[in-house]
């Protein structure tokens, strides 16, 4: 199949924001002012509507936009309101971080942790082997599954304390871990820091580990980034003694977690937050949401947002999951894509004053 390179791609008379720099599109992608007439993977008889779905390739990664016109309307609305009303809500593992690293499955912020007493690593693995299948078992009612997740997280946290976890264990674990950020993440963080847009990183893992990953892998801090996750408390000798706030697990990882983890997460401020009261997440009613699971869309449930653009990273089992992802997310990136496309989107949401 032949490909053309375009600097500006318009579909339905709409300029797609992540299509500004040499986007590759199939040569048989044709369009008129109002309809996509042809499509490499669609035809008039397809179950997909050619007038609605756009599929492109960028830097070797495929991009799916199910509703181009709706996406452009959302971009325009957020752009009109300006950065002052925007916030970013992002999952951490396999969203900000890579799914594959040198052919190996990247570690999550939770499973990279190795205690000095390896007996407790084995005990935590045993809990994982039991509870993880239950987390994704569709036959278990949500209310029952939520209780199971609370059990799992509670027992895991207890083992970390009982096993004598230290902050040095965290530093060492991160330095040895197979974990890395997607290309373009640091540029995205820098962009939103310059625009004074808060970035909330939501995780059911451990805030202290995520912050150590940020320190070791990015080698700098960002005043606009705030971690909403389970946070540890250490004694003066660096030994874990407790966890602060209520437990954040995989089924309650949403905007309500800001209240649940009080008082730690009540206000932005300090090292990982901006101090200006106008940056309050509840006053910023436009959202750019980044996740790698359909369930991550719940991260904005507690926010009364006006406009939300959701970006999904579908890293594996693409044929099995594409239908649900393209319906759920405004934009879907396939095959463990870089973050450069999201940076292009961000530049459209928060243009420079000269644009």
UniProtKB/TrEMBL annotation:
Pfam families in alphabetical order: UMPH-1 (PF05822)
InterPro entries: HAD-like_sf, HAD_sf, Pyrimidine_nucleotidase_eu
Biological processes per GO annotation: nucleotide metabolic process
GO cellular component, one term: cytoplasm
Catalyzed chemical reaction(s): a ribonucleoside 5'-phosphate + H2O = a ribonucleoside + phosphate
Keywords: Hydrolase, Magnesium, Metal-binding, Nucleotide metabolism, Nucleotide-binding
Single GO molecular function: 5'-nucleotidase activity
Known EC number: 3.1.3.5
Entry's family note: Belongs to the pyrimidine 5'-nucleotidase family.
PANTHER family referenced in this protein's UniProt entry, alphabetically: 5'-NUCLEOTIDASE (PTHR13045), 7-METHYLGUANOSINE PHOSPHATE-SPECIFIC 5'-NUCLEOTIDASE (PTHR13045:SF0)
Descriptive protein name: 5'-nucleotidase
Upper taxonomic lineage: Eukaryota, Viridiplantae, Streptophyta, Embryophyta, Tracheophyta
């Amino acid at each position: 199949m032949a490909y053309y390179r375009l600097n500006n791609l318009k579909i339905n008379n709409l300029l797609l924001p992540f299509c500004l720099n040499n986007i590759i599109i199939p040569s048989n992608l044709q369009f008129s002012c109002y309809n996509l007439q042809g499509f490499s993977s669609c035809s008039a008889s397809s179950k997909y509507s050619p007038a609605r779905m756009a599929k492109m390739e960028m830097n070797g990664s495929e991009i799916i936009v199910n509703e181009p016109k709706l996406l452009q309307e959302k971009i325009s609305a957020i752009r009109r309101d300006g950065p002052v009303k925007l916030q970013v809500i992002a999952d951490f593992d396999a969203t900000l971080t890579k799914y594959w690293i040198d052919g190996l499955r990247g570690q999550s912020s939770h499973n990279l942790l190795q205690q000095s007493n390896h007996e407790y690593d084995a005990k935590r693995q045993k809990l994982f082997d039991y509870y993880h299948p239950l987390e994704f078992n569709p036959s278990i009612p949500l209310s029952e599954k939520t209780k199971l997740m609370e059990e799992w997280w509670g027992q895991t946290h207890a083992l970390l304390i009982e096993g004598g976890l230290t902050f040095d264990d965290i530093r060492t674990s991160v330095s040895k871990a197979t974990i890395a950020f997607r290309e373009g993440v640091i540029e995205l963080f820098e962009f939103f820091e310059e625009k004074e847009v808060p970035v909330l990183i939501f995780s059911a893992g451990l805030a202290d580990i995520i912050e150590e990953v940020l320190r070791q892998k990015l080698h700098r801090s960002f005043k606009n980034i705030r971690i909403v996750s389970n946070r540890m408390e250490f004694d003066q000798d660096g030994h874990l003694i407790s966890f602060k706030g209520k437990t954040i697990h995989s089924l309650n990882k949403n905007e309500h977690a800001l209240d649940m983890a009080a008082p730690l997460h009540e206000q932005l401020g300090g090292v990982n937050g901006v101090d200006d009261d106008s940056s309050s997440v509840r006053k910023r009613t436009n959202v750019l949401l980044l996740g790698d699971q359909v369930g991550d869309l719940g991260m904005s449930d507690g926010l009364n947002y006006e406009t939300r653009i959701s970006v999904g990273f579908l890293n594996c089992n693409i044929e099995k999951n594409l239908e649900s992802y393209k319906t759920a997310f405004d934009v879907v990136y396939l095959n463990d894509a870089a973050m450069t496309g999201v940076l292009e989107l961000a530049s459209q949401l928060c243009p420079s004053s000269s644009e």
